[in-house]
Amino acid sequence: MPLNIVLAEDSPLLRDGLVSVLTRFGHQVSAAVGDADALIAAAHEHDPDIVITDVRMPPGNADDGLRAAVALRGHRAGLPILVLSQYIEQSYATHLLDLGSESGIGYLLKDRVSAVTQFASAVEQVAAGATVMDPEVVRQLLRRRQDPLRRLTPREREVLSLMAEGRSNAEIARDLYVTEAAVNKHVSSILQKLDLRLDGHGHRRVLAVLTYLRA
Amino acid sequence: MGFLASAWPWRALAYLLSGVVFGAIAMVTLLTMALAGLVSLIVGVGAVLLLAVALSGILVTRIERRRLWLVDPDPAPDPHRAPERPGLRGWLDTRLREPATWRELSFTAVSMTALWWMDLLVLAFALGLPVLLMTSPVDDPGAWPWLVIGLCLLPAAPYTITAWAGARAALTRLILAPRDRELGRELTEVRASRARLVDAFDAERRRIERDLHDGAQQRLVSINVLLGLAGLDAEPGSPVARQLALAQGEVTLAVNELRELSRGVHPKALTDHGLAAAVDNLTTRSALPVTVDIRLPYRLPATVESTAYFVVAEALANATKHSRATRAEVHARLDADVLTLTVRDNGVGGADPAAGTGLVGLADRVAAAYGRLRISSPAGGPTLLRVELPCR
């Protein structure tokens, strides 16, 4: 189903690139703007299925894009947001995850756009309410929580990262070339070792894992 | 007898003789000017003359400081500051409001009324009296015992002269040397200019980071997106698809390298979210497990934040590279407008500021922000680095 997308990115070159990629995958970019104020106006006007925004943008050239997205989310709860950033900064990831709402959050490095197919799929996942975190965010979080993670086998750590990135068990099984049953076993072993109680699936699971890693 | 053979008695003698000559000339000149000034005060010219007398201390003491060289090898710096504005008015303004000017005037008064007279008296007693005694038998051969007494007194003259010259020089230095406060001003100015320099460097780093972010990085990412799109059109497995994938890989490497580079230049999180967030981000990339405990009530001045950040970055880099540490802690609190930052690791210690430029560079940076850096790193460890930065 084609998505109605509002896009904000201050570099015209990359903005055009993003529009090309999204259009190529059959989506409708209703507005592609270059600053945070225009983003807010466009989002109010077009009522998009998802907002994609750069973090650093005019007018302040600080984290204006991120703050605009957070404001939009406050205005319309559950509005899916995909934030693109030149850097992975935990403070931004934390900011986003702290939105605490039910669904639809993504945080990716800008370079991920160039892996066009994966990027398009990430956009669709976030629009569908999933949480998509850049592998870099997860890598940093895993490094931070080294102590309890020592109890995990290397394979289990691998599975945990993919869980945090928002993959389902089926996807993890495909990525690691193992059966889904094997993944299920890994997952329950991880939960047991980390004393994590996960009753939800999909999005809730990602949030729970990320919350655990950030704690 | 080394003293008597040295130049010092002669230098002391020259000091006192020039003191008498200069003192006499100065006294006569100043008295004349003051009298003439008082007399002609009604005509108005007198005011100028009296003003000149009031400021005469500046010239008199400048010569006194020069003369000091005769008996005191240490230079006596000028306590005056540069006039705030150019021209005679500016000069007068500054001089008349300086305490040093009035201290010099009082020294001149003492010098006119007492010091050079004392010079004269000492010379007369130490040299004149023995000479007088020795020459007395010329007129009256019966007075020969005086010759003996004179001969006995003469060897004491160098000591008397040098002793008084030394005392007078010490007194002169005490009154005429700049006060700590007056020296402090120059030091403050040097420090302020150093702080401005560091600020300028920081601004420049931020600008470079912004230029990289807005320019080269965006362009490379855009190229990579175009390559990705082109890859969609290429037939899977064809030579073109392979070439495109290769090109994408290369561009991705370039983007990553550029990102690391610009992060080292100036981390964006520091500008956007402050010290705690930036240090947090730094430690998530560090190979060493680091516990961060930074609790600050508000955002600190930009210079303090960046100084503190680079201290932590350098300290953690050192700990990772040299100390064989397995853990590190970063701790920061703001107390009474002073940021106290400590970085501790459990490594082998032996960090020596003299050995590497890193620690010296840090100390310089901290000092330019009016702060203080201390390192305790005994051989065998642990290493503790403590920085205090004022945040007025």
Automatic annotation (TrEMBL), chain A:
4-aspartylphosphate modified-residue sites: D54
PROSITE patterns: HTH_LUXR_2, RESPONSE_REGULATORY
Keywords of this entry: DNA-binding, Phosphoprotein, Transcription, Transcription regulation
Pfam family, one: Response_reg
HTH luxR-type domain location: 145-215
SMART domains linked to this entry: HTH_LUXR (SM00421), REC (SM00448)
Name recorded for this polypeptide: DNA-binding response regulator
Species name: Streptomyces violaceusniger
Automatic annotation (TrEMBL), chain B:
Domain named Histidine kinase/HSP90-like ATPase: residues: 306-390
Domain Putative sensor: 15-176
GO CC annotation, single: membrane
Occurrences of domain Signal transduction histidine kinase subgroup 3 dimerisation and phosphoacceptor (ranges): 204-270
Transmembrane regions: 12-35, 41-60, 105-132, 144-171
EC number from the UniProt entry: 2.7.13.3
Gene3D superfamilies: 1.20.5.1930, Histidine kinase-like ATPase, C-terminal domain
Keywords for this protein: ATP-binding, Kinase, Membrane, Nucleotide-binding, Phosphoprotein, Transferase, Transmembrane, Transmembrane helix, Two-component regulatory system
Domain of life assignment: Bacteria
Keyword Transmembrane helix: yes
A molecular-function term among this protein's GO annotations: ATP binding
Family annotation (PANTHER family): NITRATE/NITRITE SENSOR PROTEIN NARX-RELATED, NITRATE_NITRITE SENSOR PROTEIN NARQ
Protein name (Swiss-Prot/TrEMBL): histidine kinase
Source organism: Streptomyces violaceusniger
Lineage, opening ranks: Bacteria, Bacillati, Actinomycetota, Actinomycetes, Kitasatosporales
